[in-house]
Write a structure and sequence with these properties.
The complex is a heterodimer of chains A (499) and B (236). Chain A is 76% helix and 0% strand. Chain A contains 17 helices and no strands. Chain A starts with 9 loop residues before the first helix and ends with a helix. The relative contact order of chain A is 0.12. Chain B has 236 residues and is of the alpha/beta class. Chain B is built from six helices and six strands. Chain B starts with 5 loop residues before the first strand and ends in a 28-residue tail after the last helix. The chains are: A mainly alpha (499), B alpha/beta (236). Chain A: Belongs to the Golgi pH regulator (TC 1.A.38) family. Chain A: It is found in: Membrane. Chain A: One of its GO terms (cellular component) is Golgi cisterna membrane.
């Protein structure tokens, strides 16, 4: 099994890639404050980079439309920056830009709906955080803040519970050829199923006091919160373990050039064998065709019965060769993946010798201590029935590093032009739920006077429950990822020794 | 079995443009029923009659190497892919007519295959205004194929076709536009089939024949693969 470890800095990367995407991009992890200025300089907008952003003759159409639209939006946001709506527009612009430059760099976007939905979700999620900051700083008067909170929450819930799941269902259904005709109908069906399970989610969890009605905002928020907190904890747990594993060079397997060459030779040998077998099949087909026998695959029930009793000896031989070819093709795929893995490890070894690599190695040790401490604290919280009191800053760093890094790599790994719409919508959904539950969790760490507005807006949810739930899932996730990585790490060198 | 001479042609293009369907159509004359993701490289063999219909007709095996992946892959994947670019005799560049990005990426694909000695740094020297000089002295014949023609509505067809004509001109190559799920685009005698045949003839000529028409004397394939210490594994 192969695991790809990419350390990518989402925030710096996406801001830096506002310049030309063709400039070399350096991958830096987020919490390296000392290295951040360096990263900024390398990815700064040079005049050449800006010039490259403008469309050339070949590209005059939708991409230039995007550029102009974006500029207009950002300008508009800037101008009206005194109002919250102005900021929202700015965030919308960022979301759009991020979408175009980062997520969909290699694809052409045909469905504007997806892009709009993603940008809107992003904008409103960011606005929620901004409102918390405003709360603390005391910007705007409290009644207008309250109004904006309510508005924001309603819109986000509308998006997360109604719009985005519906669109996800719609795009998934349109990918399946069978259901393509009646896709609207099936999309509604999928959405109704989602709503049913979403509602059922509330039963086993003690999240509400019974005095709330059916369609109140607390019902929806609590469910969204549970899902979001689970996701956050899962990703944090995995990230907490994966992060030091990636940074530290202690875990790097030793790979020499000879290993790579040997594997490549094996790969080419296998390809050669496949070719010679396919040649035989092709020649056999051709001679049969020329002789006038047409090689029909047995179709239908009677065809299969007939082929059992009367089969030409040539075709039996051919099917045997075909099976061998299939097996060899599978082998060639495995060899290809292993070779790619070895190349990646070799690059990481080369990188770890450089100064940057050593710096991140040190960070890795630091992080591993931090992660062990986190796991320990989670255990203590559960065993001694405490509620965690980590500060928002730590949690903020954790969230950004673990969540965003993993999300993007996962996205790159499984995206294709068919499923890219679905993935982006899933990303929007997860991002929205994540932000909502972050607000819930942050509430606990805020001083009493700032808690009031959140409590007022969100009603009386059982906040303690969320923290406990987070700790449990975090622990489970961290422990299982330790196990998982340990097994993967153990398995790999044994495979190479067998070569 | 007669030892027919071999010729290697790469099929390059972005993920999802239809390379596997195309290769299946070219080699088996059948439409591929269940296209799935290509991991690594998949090879197929097409038996081609060089100079069909003339007294010098000869049959050659053309290997079509369908290399999977995208131009934005990690550099480790690119280094692994580079092993397939050895001793290439021809390149077929495939792009999706409904996806403009795939056409633009063809420049990067061709650079990757032709300059495989250069370590991919991610620094793209050309960005649309590329250097025609690079392709002028290129000895390897190229062919540009656009797929999913049936998905372009009639109204936009002209616009798309002019764009692809520019593209093919940039590469100094012929172009074919078709739909891989419909074999009639490559029916015998159609202009597409003629262009295809001409392309393969050109590839074979460059590989086996000198300018004055004499065949290059006996070139064993044994030296081609990694270091020259391999035995040639042809099962006869």
């Amino acid at each position: 099994m192969t695991l790809q470890y990419h350390v990518s800095d989402p925030v710096l990367h996406c801001i830096g890639s506002l310049g030309s995407p063709e400039l070399p991009t350096y991958r830096l992890p987020f919490p390296c404050c000392a290295a951040a200025p360096q990263g900024w300089k390398q990815e700064a907008k040079t005049p050449v980079a800006i010039a490259k952003m403008w469309p050339t003759d070949h590209q005059l159409d939708s991409s230039s439309f995007h550029h102009y639209f974006l500029l207009f939006v950002c300008a508009g946001g800037f101008v009206s920056s005194h109002h919250l709506q102005g900021h929202q527009v700015l965030f919308f612009g960022f979301g759009w830009l991020f979408f175009m430059r980062q997520l969909f760099k290699d694809y052409e976007v045909r469905q504007y709906v997806v892009q709009v939905v993603f940008s809107v979700t992003f904008a409103f999620s960011c606005t929620m955080f901004e409102l918390i900051i405003f709360e603390i700083l005391g910007v705007l008067n409290s009644s207008s803040r309250y109004f904006h909170w309510k508005l924001n929450l309603y819109v986000i819930l509308l998006l997360l519970v109604f719009m985005v799941p519906f669109y996800i269902g719609y795009f998934v259904v349109s990918n399946i050829r069978l259901l393509h005709r009646k896709r609207l109908f099936f999309a509604c069906l999928v959405w109704l199923t989602f709503m049913y399970f979403f509602w059922k989610l509330g039963d086993p969890f003690p999240i509400l006091s019974p005095k709330h009605g059916i369609l109140s905002i607390e019902q929806l928020i609590s469910r969204v919160g549970v899902i979001g907190v689970t996701l956050m904890a899962l990703l944090s747990g995995f990230g907490a373990v994966n992060c030091p594993y990636t940074y530290m060079s202690y875990f790097l397997r030793n790979v020499t050039d000879a290993d790579i060459l040997a594997l490549e030779r094996r790969l080419l040998q296998t390809m050669d064998m496949i070719i010679s077998k396919k040649k035989r099949i092709a020649v056999a087909h051709r001679t049969m065709f020329q002789r006038g026998e047409v090689h029909n695959k047995p179709t239908g029930f009677w065809g299969m019965i007939k082929s059992v009793t009367t089969s030409a000896p040539g075709s039996e031989n051919l099917s045997l060769i075909q099976q061998e070819v299939d097996a060899l093709e599978e082998l060639s795929r495995q060899l290809f993946l292993e070779t790619a893995d070895l190349h990646a490890t070799k690059e990481r070894i080369e990188y770890s010798i450089t100064f940057q690599g050593k710096y991140f190695n040190f960070l890795g040790y630091f992080f591993s201590i931090y992660c062990v401490w986190k796991i320990f604290m989670a255990t203590i919280n559960i065993v001694f029935d405490r509620v965690g009191k980590t500060d928002p800053v730590t949690r903020g760093i954790e969230i950004t590093v673990n969540y965003l890094g993993i999300q993007f790599d996962f996205f790159y790994a499984i995206s294709s032009s068919k499923s890219s719409n679905v993935i982006v919508l899933l990303l929007a959904q997860i991002m929205g739920m994540y932000f909502v539950s972050s607000v819930l969790l942050i509430r606990m760490s805020m001083p009493l006077e700032y808690r009031t507005i959140i409590t007022e807006v969100l009603g009386e949810l059982q906040f303690n429950f969320y923290h406990r739930w987070f700790d449990v899932i975090f622990l489970v996730s961290a422990l299982s990822s330790i196990l998982f990585l340990y097994l993967a790490h153990k398995q790999a060198p044994e495979k190479h020794m067998a070569l | 079995m007669a030892a027919l001479d071999r010729v290697k042609v790469l099929v390059l293009g972005d993920s999802g443009v239809g390379k596997s369907s195309l290769v299946h159509l070219l080699c088996q004359n059948q439409v591929l029923g269940n296209p799935s993701w290509t991991v690594g490289c998949s090879v197929d063999v097409r038996i081609h009659d060089y100079k069909e219909g003339t007294p010098e007709e000869k049959t050659y095996y053309t290997e079509l190497w369908d290399v999977g992946g995208s131009v934005g892959s990690a550099s480790s994947v690119k280094s692994t892919r580079a092993v397939f670019y050895n001793s290439v005799n021809g390149i077929i560049l495939v792009h999706d007519l409904t996806n403009k990005k795939s056409s633009q990426n063809l420049y990067r694909w061709s650079l990757e295959a032709l300059n495989r000695d250069v370590v991919p740094t991610g620094v793209l020297v050309t960005n649309g205004d590329y250097d025609r000089e690079q392709f002028a002295d290129n000895q390897i014949p190229l062919l540009v194929i656009g797929t999913k023609l049936d998905q372009i509505p009639e109204a936009k067809r002209n616009e798309v076709l002019t764009r692809t004509a520019f593209l093919a001109e940039d590469f100094n190559a012929e172009e074919i536009n078709l739909d891989c799920t419909n074999p009639r685009y490559l029916a015998a005698g159609s202009s597409n089939a003629v262009k295809l045949s001409r392309f393969f003839d050109k590839v074979i000529e460059k590989r086996y024949f000198l300018r004055d028409g004499n065949q290059i004397p006996g070139f064993s394939d044994r030296k081609r693969f990694g270091g020259g210490t391999l035995k040639n594994l042809h099962y006869d």
